[in-house]
Protein 1
Amino acid sequence: MSSRGTERKKRDREVESPKENEQVFQRNKITVRSPLQSREKENQEMEEVKKMISELATQIKDDMRESNKQLLNERNAQLKEELKTIREELKQARGQLQEQNQEISDKYEEWKRAKEEMGKRVGEVESQLDRIEREKRRNKVVMMGLEIETGEQKQIIGKVTTFLEEKVKVESKVKSA
């Protein structure tokens, strides 16, 4: 077998004409040659497939852009609605805050007036107390040096009255001694 294989290799090398080439290829079953027309047809089909893939890719990109735009628009619409409700809530909260501030300022004014009235009343009461104390002091006479040996109030009142009438020559009514 080895001699046959070498002979075949020699013959394959010595063949130079196209006819002989074809004969060699026809004899050799391992090497298959495809005709040029079928390759051109395959190339055309491949180009068409490439073109279809490219068109599909651009269509998918366009569809993705469009869906992204729709999603973005929907999200923007949701955010606008949320922002609108937040603004309304904020407006209501501000209104409530203003009402509460007004109530507080009204209460403060009321308390301020009550404080002023209380201050006036306290001043009036103090002046009345001062006047009453002055009247009490005016009606009181303190005597010193009068010798009274009894501890009963009626006897003391009697002795003070006689003393005032005899020595000072003033008639007075002694209420307590």
Protein 2
Amino acid sequence: MQNFQSGAQTAANDVGIKILGLDDLDGYISGVNEEFLVPNSKTIGEPFWGITVNKKQVNTAEQLFGKRIYLFESKYFAEKYLETILLDESGNLKIIGISQELLRLVKSLSVDNKVKIKMFSLIDSDPDKLEFNFKDLKGKDINIYIWE
């Protein structure tokens, strides 16, 4: 650990925060510690699941999702959509859990009009007949899903 003020180190240790210095950032930037930055198949949806590009190094959320973010309340329906509609046989896409932190980022991207959010609507869909319908969400609509 680098030379931080002892009070900062103590406070961080008390609440389980890892202190990072400038020297530590190289590992994150180069992708060595990417498991801490990019959601993966082990990330649990809180409360959503999404379909993203399957790349090792992703620098922005726009690279992760593209211009549209598809949200599913169930991993099952995300898998079904990926298998039957997107037909991704090349493995270019993957399903990830959308954590609360990522959901906040998604909201901010929507507010800034950088991405469109589409939420799967089971009521308006019939996945057995390959009918998947989505509702448009605005950033403010996401507020009810963000835990304080």
Protein 3
Amino acid sequence: MKGSFNLFLLLIAGIIGIISAANHAHPPQVYAGNIAENFTPTSPPNGMNTSSVPTINERPAADASAQGPTPIRGYIQNNCRFSIWVASVCCDPRCEFKLEQLRPGTGYWNPYLTYNNGCSQTIKLYRAPQDVAIRREYQVEYSMELNGDVWYNLSHEDGNPFTFAARFLTVDERCMWLYCAAENDGYECDWPRFTARCHLQRDVRFYLC
């Protein structure tokens, strides 16, 4: 009887070992709303250019009157060899949709600061101006919670005109980054599969190509 019980324990241990090995070989998928531990590397993925470039507008000045965590900003950098069009929207009715052309090798700042009020900010990216009417747009979405946590993600819910280009979203080297190589349909970096959070109040920066 004792021998049978010991054999049973060995079988259980073997099954647990197999499951553990499988989990290490195939890590669990990251589902909507989960936070992946995917920290920004010290160098950009696949040599993407994150060096400073001329911007088409000024970086929004800090709000000295702001209470609580420091407001953050959103930034887009076009490393592609063609122009794209961008526009910022948010949950505040004072946010005005203004389409801007972003030429190759230039950057764009969302003119609206993001405060710790949970107000969602979105920067929409278009391949051509006529895509606005049909909502063929790629989106950089972010917000800051009351405690200062920054939430951010990429979304192709309304279309993805930039599947052919690499996409990289980062906040800080100590926080999660999102990256899709060229020709990836968004499975490796986009919402709803990936949502990221950073405990630091840093600007949200997106690089295309």
Protein 4
Amino acid sequence: MEVPFSAFELTFIILAFVIFSLFSLASVCIRPEEAPTEEAAYEGKKFQQQVKKKQREIAKQAGQEP
């Protein structure tokens, strides 16, 4: 009975399997970055409000409607 693949082909098949296994294992074992907390979300919203306020002030100084 013949082997369905040559040694060269088997090398690539095994290599692909090992790489796939490593990536799968890494995706399970590596912890994702922490999700932003509510405080960080509040700070971001507060910063956006300050930016909008500053933009309105600049638009008023230039004589434009915001």
